[in-house]
Amino acid sequence: MGLKNENVLIVDDDINILELIYRHLQSFNYHSYKAVSVKEALAILKDSRIDLLITDLKMPDVDGMQLINYVSEHYPKLPKLVVTGYPSVDDALNVLKSGAIDYLVKPFTKEELRQAVMKSFAENEQLLASPIAQTNSKSGGNEQYGELIGRSKAIKRVTSIIDRVKDNKATVLINGESGTGKELVARSVHYMGKFSRAPFIAVNCGAIPESLLEAELFGYAKGAFTGAQEQRSGLFQAADKGTLFLDEVGNASPAVQSKLLRALQEKEVIKVGSQKTEKIDLRVIAATNSDLLSMVQKGLFREDLYYRLTVVEINVPPLRERKEDLVLLVNKFLTKYGLEYKDRVVSITADALDLLMRYNWPGNIRELENVIQRSVIMCDKQIGLENLPDNLKVKINFSDDRLLPLREIEKQYILKVLEATGNNKSRAAEILQIDRKTLRQKIQ
Ligand SMILES: Nc1ncnc2c1ncn2[C@@H]1O[C@H](COP(=O)(O)OP(=O)(O)OP(=O)(O)O)[C@@H](O)[C@H]1O
Ligand SMILES: [Mg+2]
Question: At which residues is 4-aspartylphosphate found (predicted)?
């Protein structure tokens, strides 16, 4: 190993560990840089080409987690290995385990270090070799595409369509339940593509009264209505060369629909109260959480407009159909709200995470974000079952149409009892009338 002249940056406030890792790496033929603080590490990162970051977590001034977050953002391709001397501080570890970062617990042997370093490099190579990483150089990792997080097949389908449309001006319709990330997808189409310097303008067709929406979108001529003392151009023109995002397009009135059709078809707009046509040049992205096609069938939405909007269609899947992404999202929100409210990354217990995995998330990612935000505020160091809102908690509902295997009912019931006893296993075993050993096995 080390034949490729990889440079490793080691960060630890403990000089002994720093030296130890340095010497080991030397014997593996790596060239290493040493830093005793995050500040030093940042300076080295700036000036040198680094291929692997090895860092301690607990350091006096700025802690390693913040360095990791910084690196994830600014050097997304750089593999990271955490060496921690505090295996009991499982809050940080939990976060790491669920994320894409490898870690090693002190004290470790030379061989363990060698394995961990090799693994970090190997994973990184895989990452670089994958087609997604190649087509998507801005994001680097294959779990993040711009701001969009996810590793599920479902989200990969979304990002591969974004890759195909981001550099052209095809009209895109985004479908998806509330809170699934439709607006984020729209922003990604715009900001990942080559027109990203031009404006992105979002307008919610459901939130603005019809007459106002028309004037907003298309502008108005002087004297078009009382109060129109000067002519004004609309959002179609404000978004020139960029993207106009028509959110909740299903709520547009028939009058607005016919004007939208004209704008898309003829690539021109007419100000309210004017006769003059004006050329426009932009991309339109529309979003809806209602089934537009059935609205077309019911005569509530113009069919011709529907076809103009669906040149490319992106269906954003609900969170319950991509539970693989849930852990990544939880991780992101724990870091975000942990740093915001507690000045550090907050972790989550296995029970609590399990409950999140089993809930069906009608409000999708927005609901998840809200739950994590609240729970971070309510918890001490770690989010436990007791910090999660009641509506997530198991209800065994026998009138439910779904027929569940006994094992599932057992699992749900055990969790319910554990929760009710504040995770007191002796008490739970007593209630369940099984011994503690059996309970432990079942929990596993
Ligand atoms: N894949 C994702 N990765 C990270 N964050 C996400 C992802 N998808 C959604 N979010 C976050 O979830 C929240 C809701 O997303 P967004 O507003 O785009 O949803 P929406 O589908 O437009 O919802 P609505 O139908 O209610 O308008 C936002 O805070 C967004 O940043
Ligand atoms: Mg939205």
Answer: 56
